[in-house]
Amino acid sequence: MKRHLISAKDLTRDDALLVLDTAEELARVSGRSVKKLPTLRGLTVVNLFFEDSTRTRISFEAAAKRLSADVINFSAKGSSVSKGESLKDTALTLEAMGADAVVIRHGASGAPYRLADWINGNVINAGDGTHEHPTQALLDAYTMRRHLGSLDGRKITIVGDVLHSRVARSNVLLLSTLGAEVTLVAPPTLLPVSVGTWPCKVSYDLDSVLAKSDAVMMLRVQRERMNAAYFPTVREYSRRYGLSAERYSHLPEHAIVMHPGPMNRGVEIAAEVADSARSTIVEQVGNGVSVRMAVLYLLLGGAQPAIGADK
User: Fold this and answer.
1) Alpha carbons 85 and 79: distance in angstroms, whole number
2) Active site annotation includes 105
């Protein structure tokens, strides 16, 4: 049976908790002198990246290798893709090579769904356009749970460029599944038209929600995806929606500060806040390896895949 992880909505509450609990177990491997398990020996994982990424690609590569899988890194730059080869032709090439799982990042929303139709291996979405990034949401939830305990009833605030953020969409879906109350904070121009159908609240005033937040996630302003003026100036955006040291001081003492990276220091987050004691930004990167190990293990490790949607 072929299963994939393409959207956070593919995961039931039990699925999500299984990933988080498995990641907790696998995190212990990282503390050992030999950071390897033989679980996926003989299987091949392909990292198929049509967009640049450092954290996500290296994280998936480390996760697969710690489970003893063979890893093939495929970058669109300098490949046949840059000469005009289609996604389908690339998929057929991977199928001929016998890839057991393909981790795909693509600029077009929906590309992982198409890939899942064309290959027999498992497909994991590592970010598709402005659509979703489910493993980022899982590692964010894992990080929150380590600091806050159960996410039931926790108030999570996600701030910034929601319109272009696949991380925001996946987090809203997953965190609501796990029982958290999510509030999106952004200027109206940086919220998608469909936000009214999302399981979350919306606010345009960051200062009004900080004191009630258990975790605040700042999103990068994705200027490379912007082809219009979404706010007057960067300075004005930072003044209204940036997490400054002053705003940071209004957070509850237990609250954590998050960012999926890479950061625009001084725009959406002040440098001293990013480097503060309650910032989990570096920790999130490390947690990403454990969570992606859990996803690969649960999709590929058993006779029956334990998570993901049937295709």
Assistant:
1) 9
2) yes
- To the nearest 10 degrees (0 to 180), the angle between helices 134-148 and 166-177 is 50
262 is in an annotated binding site: yes
pLDDT tens per residue, range 242-270: 999 999 999 999 999 999 988 999 999 99
Tokens of 107: 């600029």
Per residue in 44-101, pLDDT (tens digit) is 999 999 988 888 999 999 999 999 999 999 877 655 555 456 889 988 888 898 899 9
Give the CA angle between residues 290, 295, 301 to the nearest 5°: 110
Domains located in the chain, CATH noted: 3-132+285-310 (3.40.50.1370), 134-281 (3.40.50.1370)
State the sign of the Cα–Cα–Cα–Cα dihedral 60, 66, 70, 72: positive
Is 83 annotated in the active site? yes
Helix-strand-coil split of the chain, %, nearest 5: 45, 20, 40
Share of the chain above pLDDT 70, in %: 91
Q: Which residue among the candidates 55, 146, 155, 240 is catalytic per the annotation?
A: 55
Give the whole-angstrom CA distance, residue 284 versus residue 267: 20
